[in-house]
Design brief:
Blueprint lengths: L2 E7 L14 H13 L4 E5 L12 H17 L4 E4 L3 H9 L4 E4 L9 H6 L4 E5 L17 H18 L7 E4 L8 H9 L1 H5 L4 E4 L5 H6 L6 H17 L4 E4 L2 H15 L1
Parallel strand pairs: 1-2, 1-8, 2-3, 3-4, 4-5, 5-6, 6-7, 7-8
Helix pairs in contact: 1-2, 2-3, 9-10
The chain binds pterin-6-yl-methyl-monophosphate (PMM).
Pterin-6-yl-methyl-monophosphate binds next to strand 1 and strand 5.
Length: 263
């Protein structure tokens, strides 16, 4: 079954939960409750990537995430660090993170791939077309699926060339990153082709705007969480390795019901 990655945003400004978990103790407690709700792993991030977000200094990012990574890893939890900075990735892996989740696919920091190659951590490479402040300006595609696949293939090639074996690479089409409404659905429909890259596939739809749009506009978080859980089931069907979600219980329940149907 698709694994569930619970989101722990240690940020003041993430779009759906910014500011709630900025205190490390609150973030750690939140992560523990996501684990108790059935998260298989926890993704700890200290820099918001929401559209329009400003970059955060790596020092500030590390102050936010390292205490949380260290505490969770020391309790035996599988921790992923959501970062575009090589120095943060190195420090987080030293603190016990097992996965580096780079939404920029190693493009934001030229040292990232070499930094991860030096460790035994996995890397999740996101499809990305530039920083949050300008990502929608770059959402121009002739064929969004073909371009996302080709650009992700380039990132996988770059990671392998840097010394990261394919078994340690995860690909993520970067839902909402430089993609508008319908483009996200086109990419999701093509998920089986993404698996053709020969890497595990991670999908992050949680609470994103394109889901609210599918519900007719400004759906609140509860409705977005239900919509997210539906996409988790569909991602599971399409062979995704993991889904990254805020609301773990709803996705867990949806996956359990879908599997009961099939069994
Ligand atoms: N989306 C966000 C942040 N990190 N990481 C991966 N691998 N995939 C995603 O789709 C992704 C991500 C933005 O969402 P948030 O601000 O709610 O965490």
């Amino acid at each position: 079954m698709t694994l569930v990655m619970g989101i722990v945003n240690v940020t003041p400004d993430s779009f759906s939960d910014g500011g709630r978990f900025l205190d490390p103790d609150v973030a750690i407690a939140h992560a523990r409750s996501l684990r108790a709700q059935g998260a298989d792993m926890l993704d700890v991030g200290g820099e918001s990537t929401r559209p329009g977000a400003e970059r955060v200094a790596p020092r500030v990012e590390q102050q936010r995430v390292l205490p949380v990574v260290e505490a969770l890893a020391s309790e035996g939890l599988i921790v992923s660090v959501d970062t575009m900075n090589a120095t943060t990735a190195r420090a987080a892996v030293a603190a016990g993170a097992r996965i580096v989740n780079d939404v920029s696919g190693g493009m934001a920091d030229p040292d990232m791939l070499a930094a991860v190659a030096d460790t035994d951590a996995d890397i999740a490479l996101g499809h990305w077309r530039g920083p949050s402040v300008e990502m929608y300006a770059r959402a121009e595609y002739d064929d969004v699926v073909a371009e996302v696949l080709a650009e992700l293939q380039e990132r996988v090639d770059a990671a392998e060339a840097a010394g990261i074996p394919r078994a340690r690479i995860v690909v993520d089409p970067g839902i909402g990153f430089g993609k508008r409404g319908e483009q996200n659905w086109q990419v999701l429909r093509a998920l089986p082709r993404l698996s053709g890259l020969g890497c595990r596939v991670l999908i992050g739809t949680s609470r994103k705007r394109f889901l609210a749009e599918a519900l007719g506009g400004d759906a609140d978080l509860g409705r977005r969480d239900l919509a997210t859980a539906v996409t988790s089931v569909l991602a599971d069907r399409a062979g995704a390795w993991a889904v990254r979600v805020h609301d773990v219980p709803t996705t867990r329940d949806a996956l359990a019901v879908a599997h009961a149907w099939e069994a």
